[in-house]
Please model this.
Amino acid sequence: MSGSRPSAADLRDQLWRAVLEGGEYDAVDCVRAGLDAGWQEEELLLDVVARVQEKIGAEWAADRITVAQEHAATSINERVIAALVHGPAAGRPVPHRGRVTVACVDGEWHAFPARLVAEVLRLRGWLVDYLGAQTPTPHLVAHQHHTNSDAVLLSGSIPTHLPAAHAAITACRAIGVPVLAGGRAFGADGRFARALGADAWAPDARGAADVLEAGLPRPMAVRQAVDDLPHLADQEYTMVVRSRSRLVKQMLMDLESRFPAMRGYSDAQRERTAEDLVHILDFLATALYMDDAEVFTEFLGWTSEVLAARGVPVHSLVTGLDILAEQLHDFPRGLHLVHEGANLLRGRAADAAVPGAGV
Model:
């Protein structure tokens, strides 16, 4: 063993190279070497493994690694976590704080952040029931009846799952179990967690552990979901969700007539375009549910960057929004959101335009 302790940056670089090259054993050796050099399990989980996982997502979005590479690297990181917290060098933490449930919102497949939270809490002395990805709300509630958890920690990465999160939060609190929400879906400042009635929010695993250690009281007054979001009475969210298939079909037809390049698309490209339109409508519906324009505009901004990295012009996205606006003439809130999103993208296209080239 070397006499000097490797820095977090050095360990991240080593782990990144290992996961990118498919070197599972090298990846495990990297974190075990960190343990031997004096790093704590929690530090390695959050300052090394989690940071590398963030880089994996960023590199995929920038089109510098493929979907297959992203999946393979994530799988290796998941096995690194298992080796780190269950390896022979790791002790077995004795639960002494209480029992909690860690689960992902129904429909949420991105379980990596929740897994990190679960392992950090175990290291901190909690007995953790980790339910993993996309936990249906009835199953989550049934588990609370069985275990009487001190709290439910609900993880969500994608804002389109916020309506499902709302149902889970309301159901858990209705049986007296407090809910601590976390993940990008709930906003960088946790404002969506508060809007949906969660008892607390944390930005990361360390923050979640701190909230639990401070104590979460059992809910006393139970509110109905409709009480949290009275704007849903206008039914725009419901109507957009019910009309999604029709809207996507109409948008595809009109896009082909207004965006001639689509006529040469392969079947795979057409399918990908349809998927993009579905995502647009899903985020629009979620913005209507939350009555928050940023849900929609932030998604459009991110999408425009991803499309640009893949060589797809932003104006094709703007055209799609213009077509969608024509279909939403009877939905004032939805129409306002679409116009706001289109104006945002037009501004970005103008800023990026080369003088004299035209957009």
About this structure: The longest helix spans residues 267-290. The chain has a mean pLDDT of 90.
